[in-house]
Model the fold of this input.
Amino acid sequence: MSQQPQQQHVRVGVGVLVRDPKSTTGKVFAGKRKGSHGAGTLALPGGHLEMFETWHECAQREVKEEMGIDIHNVTFGHVTNDPMESEGKHYVTLFMMAEFADQDGTPINCEPHKCEGWDSYTWEELQQISDGRDESGLTLFGPLRRLVEEKPEKIV
Done:
């Protein structure tokens, strides 16, 4: 088994916990990844922090690109250290929290080549998926799994 080439630098990823405005139980949106590292796993909307971009700007840009919605009340939630040795990658992932700017909005899958679609999940559902107690067969993308395992007070 050949290992992928090592990336030369730690990259910064941003994941966004976007609250579902139609949920009364604090659900957040996640989608199944396609065509990239972590394919087949459940991940939050997000991506790479671009040069000179603030964390808030990155969160807003990525959610707009991936879900077609505007977000507001963007705040910092947590950070994880995510080495992915088998994939030759290492990330520091910033988790931001946000709400729909339009409470009547509905996310769309703007990047079907990268995501199978968006569903919303409670924190408890994400914990069950992470622990393997969920019958769906889903697994969490590494940074999201680490976030769930670390159970940060600001998010839980």
Remarks:
- The chain has a mean pLDDT of 93.
- The chain has three helices and seven strands.
- The two ends are 39 Å apart (CA to CA).
- The beta strands are 11-18, 28-33, 42-43, 46-48, 71-84, 89-100, 115-121.
